[in-house]
Amino acid sequence: MKLTIATALGFVGAASAARTFTVYNACPFTIWPAVFTDLNVGSAVPSVATGWEAPAWSTKTFSVPDNWKAGRIWGRRNCNFATNPGPNSCLDGGCNGGLLCDAHTGTGVPPATLAEFTLGAADGNDWYDVSLVDGYNLPMRITNTGGCHVADCPVDLGPNCPSALKGPFDSSGFPVGCKSDCLVDSNPGNSPSCCSGSHNTPATCPKSGVPHYNYFKSNCPNSYVYAYDESSGTALWTCPASKKPNYTITFCP
Ligand SMILES: *[C@@H]1O[C@H](CO)[C@@H](O)[C@H](O)[C@H]1NC(C)=O
């Protein structure tokens, strides 16, 4: 029996190679990174807590299975988990659970810049992007060791954010986020900003229907700005899974 188990583990280890992910906080302030996996899409999860405190200039390195599907990493700002830990413990990006985001419902409260990953997709590529679909809360960059393109939003989109989208604000009045047009839409169920209702296809949800598309895309051309931004050609990035790329996510690059 022992031999059987050892053999089985050895096979699993050889068959599912892992990648190395590094999350670097280059912001001159503490943030609280978070990781979420859509368990409806796949069961593989990174070998790291679903949330942690990252002081300025700190790095965390962890292993991620090379079949990680529908994963996301983001940063939370201005958190205090001492009382009432949950989605409102942070000014933005907070999640159900508090410091540790709930495995099933712990996505970030918008606005939040997201690093999104599907490793080893059906086409043989890793897919990755920096998404502003849920709005913006921190500058971010994804680099890789596979020689593939950088995905990034390197600009602080808070200070110049259009007034209708600006915020939330910290205690000094500084904007720590810039909301998406979808988030402020009064009719999100049938919206050209959210690509919902009668606008739920690429043909019926052009970028021209998103009022502030150009603010986000001109500042962050290599980011994924709205639900059907793939047509821009600079939203969703791929890298051959056969190269086994490692990835670094840098906040405030
Ligand atoms: C990924 O990182 C691991 C561990 O640091 C290293 O052994 C491997 O060579 C790296 N792979 C690539 C493609 O850079």
Automatic annotation (TrEMBL):
Leader sequence residues: 1-17
Ranges annotated as spanning the membrane: none
Family matches, as Pfam families: Thaumatin (PF00314)
Disulfide cross-links: C27-C252, C79-C90, C95-C101, C148-C239, C153-C220, C161-C178, C182-C194, C195-C205
UniProt keyword list: Disulfide bond, Signal
Cited SMART domains: THN
Keyword tRNA processing found: no
The protein, known as: Thaumatin-like protein
